[in-house]
Write a structure and sequence with these properties.
GPCR_Rhodpsn; membrane; G-protein coupled receptor; mainly alpha; 10 helices; 74% helix; transducer
Length: 264
Amino acid sequence: MTAIAINRYILIMWHSVYARLYSRPHILLMVLFVWVVGFSLLVPPLLGAWGCLGLEPRSFSCTILKKDGASPKKLVFVVGFALPCTVMAAAYSCIYWRVKRSRAALKAHGTSGSRLSLEAVRAAGHAVNKNPKDVVGKPAAAGTGGGFRRRDDRRLTRLMLTVFCSFLVCFLPLTLVNAMDNLGAPPTLQLLSSVLAWASAVINPFIYAATNRQYRAAYRRLLCGCGADQPSASAPSPRQRLHHRGRVTSDSGTATVTTAGRVG
């Protein structure tokens, strides 16, 4: 999840270097690094060199136990939880700040957009009178496809932020209980924190269904056998909307040229 948060951060904050940084070889190295770090935290107790792995009767779970009065639980808490959570919180905070600033800029730009649009229409009318060929065949809107992609990127970022918050809710209690093992947490608290951690294995599909329309449609097809295989006409895909806008703009341009020719 930390790697995904960093990925979202670079995509939104440093979009120009994203494609170069996240090439296929680099992604494979990142995945390998994540697996190596995660596994290396469990090597000492697995070998019995620093603590050991065994059953904890109070929480009914297999976890890291003390051996000779020592265990790496605090190190696991710092490297496996506190540090990643700090990085994820910082990444999503920066993303939120950038999105908020962009929305403010778009809102400020929108106040003067009507004036600019009126001037652009008048200028286009003069251009049609001079040379109609300059208007016909113009592209619909430069960067419209990029707008759809960025909108999908922001939606995915919100989804990953929701997953991160659920990760905190599920694992923070158990991590704190394990880190403060010397204080002797009540068995009921240990059991409840373990149940929350186990719930993390099944909570993500519900998050995806609650936040993503495509997931809900896929679940309906999978569980109920209902729902069309193709996107409905009421909810066209971004590609269909872009194609439709291009056709509307082209037809409008043709109508403008025809009207201008009649007036002239």
